[in-house]
Design brief:
The chain folds into 2 domains: 67 residues; 149 residues, Histidine kinase-like ATPase, C-terminal domain (Heat Shock Protein 90, 2-Layer Sandwich). The protein has 6 helices and 7 strands, in the order H-H-E-H-E-E-H-E-E-H-H-E-E. The strands form 2 sheets. A 5-stranded mixed sheet has the order 2-4-5-7-6, with helices on one face. Strands 1-3 form a two-stranded antiparallel sheet. A hairpin with a 4-residue loop joins strand 6 and strand 7. The chain starts with a helix and ends with a strand. Bound molecules: adenosine-5'-triphosphate and magnesium ion. Magnesium ion (MG) binds next to helix 4.
């Protein structure tokens, strides 16, 4: 992998986290100009800011992990991880007409897998779905399990990805967005391979979905 690509990757992840911090700080500033000081809300935001700054710190540290091919498997609760990611990225939904649904297969308990890589994959898929649902739409995250392999589906009903682009979207630096780096899905595909998993995409007028499948379901 080229130095430039590694640099872009670091910038990409750090940009996501910094964006969360800027967003929280903006909301806080608005709250603080109110005549009546909303102490409770400000306190909540301060603690959220602390968490986000910590996440940024973790990411800068974890970015180093990108350079390794091997995995560091941990036991974790997949649904708790997805809920956590949704809470973190909900504030980026620009339209009140967009909602996020979940449908979990509750037979999945814990999974053993590289949590950082699983998290990074789901974050990038969810971000793309949010960006594809700017005006309105439904985003859905669902899970299923078959033969020890877990699947996470991230779907939305935004614009269709034209067939001629489907082959290109996983290439590094391919983007159709003004501010996109085009690294999101390149990271997704690289990390999915690292964890012996796969990512498949399907897009139609009514539904675009990405299926992440990886081994590691624990009973
Ligand atoms: N859910 C989706 N709906 C429609 N198009 C999508 C979706 N996910 C990805 N794409 C298309 O695939 C392209 C590549 O996605 P990718 O995540 O790699 O980069 P990006 O989102 O453009 O930029 P970055 O992730 O670096 O901010 C996008 O620019 C978009 O055209
Ligand atoms: Mg993206």
């Amino acid at each position: 992998m080229k130095e430039k690509e590694i640099f872009d990757y670091l910038i990409h992840e750090i940009k996501n986290s910094s964006q969360s911090i800027v967003l929280s700080a903006g909301i806080m500033k608005k709250l603080m100009t109110r005549d009546e000081f909303p102490k409770e809300s400000v306190l909540k935001l301060v603690s959220r800011l602390g968490e986000q700054a910590e996440a940024l710190y973790d990411q800068v540290r974890d970015a180093g992990l990108y350079f390794r091919e091997e995995n560091f498997p941990l036991t974790f609760d997949l649904h708790a991880l997805i809920n956590d990611i949704i809470d973190e990225y909900k504030p980026f939904m620009t339209s009140g007409n967009t909602n996020i649904q979940t449908e979990y297969d509750l037979t999945i308990r814990n999974v053993i897998q590289d949590e950082f890589k699983v998290r990074t994959i789901i974050v990038n898929l969810l971000k793309n779905s949010i960006e594809a649902s700017k005006r309105s739409g439904t985003i859905k995250l669902s899970t299923s399990v078959a033969g020890g392999a877990v699947s996470v589906i991230v779907e939305n009903n935004g614009p269709v990805i034209p067939e001629e682009l489907i082959k290109k979207i996983f290439e590094p630096m391919f983007t159709t967005k003004k501010t996109g780096t085009g690294l999101g899905l390149a990271i997704v595909s690289r990390f999915a391979k690292n964890i012996q998993g796969s990512v498949k995409v399907n897009s139609s007028d009514t539904r675009t979905y990405f299926i992440l499948t990886f081994p590691g379901s624990l009973k």
